Amino acid sequence: MHSPNTASEEVCSDSIIDGKEDTLQNSVRSETTLKNSSSLHKIKGDGYSKVLVLYTGGTIGMLRTESGVYAPETSIMEKRIKLYPQLHDTTAAEDYAIEHPEKNFMILPDTGETARVLYVIREYVPLLDSSNMTMDDWIRIAMDIKESYEQYNGFVVLHGTDTMAYTASALSFMLENLGKTVVITGSQIPLYEARSDGRDNLMNALIVAGNYVIPEVTILFNNKLFRGNRTSKISTSNLDAFNSPNLPPLAKMGIGIHVEWRNVYRPSSIEKFNVHSLLNRNVGLLRLFPSITVEVVRAFLSPPIEGVVLQTYGAGNGPSQRRDLFDEFKRAFRRGVIIVNCTQCSLGQVDPSYETGSALMDVGVVPGSDMTPEAALTKLSYVLSKKEWSLQTKRTMMEANLRGELTVHKDAKFEDLDVITAVVKTLNLSSAEEVDALRDAISPAILCSIVSEGNLEKLEIMRQFGAYLSACDYDYKTPLHIACSDGNLKIVEYLLKHGASIHMRDREHRTPLMNAVVNDHHEVIKLIVKAGGYLNLPSLTIGEMLCSYAKQGDLTRLESLRLAGADLNDPDCTNRTCLHYAAEMNLEEVVSYLLKHNVCKSAQDLYGRTACDIAKVLEHDSLVKLLQLENAD
Ligand code: ASN
Fold it and tell me: Which single residue of 122, 151, 233, 470 has CA 20 to 30 Å from 246?
């Protein structure tokens, strides 16, 4: 399958005139298996991607103090990184700085990916060992991502390993409808030491954040990319310090980068990216052990506690013969405390098939499936802080899959689809790898044809069989691109609700939103914008487009651009706005439309002329009247 390759649009500047797109700079596209020729990576021209690195602390940036212990060292990270050619290409940075003197980026060397990664490190004050981090630090990281969301293609958070899984889990819930890649990483050995794992971790994190649209909060460690809320720290000393026992890594870094796209979680509601910055701190983790006293449990469940992750034995079993404990659970339930049942085992899930497990459900304990303790705790904190949800909704949410943090049920296998089975038989395929390869090869084509047919029922069947709805065809077009070109509102809505990415770019660097714009599907444009889509082209490019369509009297296209977020006041390179051109061409309808949308009448072109001045010179009398009539800018 062609990977749902990266393509973040924000820093990409495309000019699209008369339906043609032309990448000016900064476009990003990559594919898991694509080996890129170095010509694609010339610093001058296409192919930049911008990543914001939030450096919060951790071993990665520590030095040994005089007393021989590790502590974070301020203000040296950037200087030191510049000394490692693996992390910073000095020549490329100098070249870039000549063309963009206003910005001071670090640049990764050419790593064989399509985009050259430009990055900025924002160092936190104070830098923290992650054992000292609190929920306030999670909120700070989330708010920083929010503030810079549109300026960067992806985000890297440098963090200590000790509480990294908590931060990753918390952020996964707080960053609602995330459409971009967030990678958290750190190291076991400081970056400045000879054997550090930090340099590889940082480089891989930058490559992933800058080249792949994996709209999740992830942890990158030791050449593996994990879903953050499925991950726990498992070793104090191994470089392989993290694991995600109930979900295979989302990507592995070997000779190439292999992304398991079908496992990538995608937001399933049509909402824009948003940060939920409230957290409830009255939560806790209670680990059962044989002979735990009722006093301990009672004290733990007492106010102000509002949510507890109960770490039980095996498949979610508790001591059902301990009436004293169960009475405490019941009392807490009646007081409105949410107790979530999670297993002490790292592998497997809570399953009420034992009497000892179902007894807990009987006293109101919510089954937590296969959530890690870190995910369950931070989810409780997030869910409990949702003022708009009733207590019952909060309980339901704890059981539901919000960000891929738990397994709800296994979908039927895509291989079970008749057509696949038939092809498998005909081709005499035997191994699982062969069947996978076949499915990957044909599913994008099947999906795209179903979408262009507009067949919602078939699409739903494909989804139920586990088809990956953001798979691209050989032009890197996703089903969403096709539905947007066709203007099929129902299919667009369906795809968005099932996690299709609005940030993907096709071979011509066009996003689904642009497809809707150049085909004038206004309702689709509105929906994509509602889901967080935006043009994000330089205002000059937008100005050129607007002026060109105004000159042609193409009101429909002007409206498409306006709905997509274009500012009708953006001028072209002669400083004329579309109002100047509409006045010049004597297009009364266009002028009225622009005035209705409050386009500035006093804007002057390079020669100091307003639209009204032009209309006067050309004796377009009725336009002069129109422009003077409402002359109240
Ligand atoms: N104590 C360190 C921290 O969590 C451990 C590390 O980063 N490897 O900040």
Answer: 470
191 contacts: CB under 8 Å, gap ≥ 6: 60, 61, 77, 80, 81, 198, 199, 202
Contact assessment for residue 538 and residue 23, using Cβ atoms and an 8 Å cutoff:
no
* CATH number, domain with residue 469: 1.25.40.20
Dihedral in degrees, nearest 10, Cα atoms 549, 553, 556, 559:
60
Q: Which of 120, 115, 109 has the alpha carbon at shortest distance from 53?
A: 120
In a domain, 264, yes or no: no
How many angstroms separate the CA atoms of 323 and 359, rounded?
11
C-beta atoms surrounding 345 within 10 Å: 16
Q: How far is the CA of 160 from the centre of ligand 1 (A)?
A: 4
Around ligand 1, the residues with Cβ closer than 6 Å are: 57-59, 129-131, 160-162, 186, 188
Asked about 56 being catalytic, the answer comes back as no
Q: How confident is the model at residue 101 (pLDDT cuts 50, 70, 90)?
A: confident
Same domain, 96 and 179: yes
pLDDT higher than threshold 80 for residue 352: no
CATH number where 166 lies: 3.40.50.1170
Average pLDDT, the chain: 87
Instruction: State both tokens at 135.
Output: 């929920």
CA of 190 to the centre of ligand 1 (A): 10
193-214 per-position pLDDT tens digit: 999 999 999 999 999 999 999 9
The number of angstroms, rounded, from the C-alpha of 420 to the middle of its chain's C-alpha atoms is 31
Q: Ligand 1 pocket: which of 128, 131, 232 to mutate (most atoms <8 Å of CB)?
A: 131
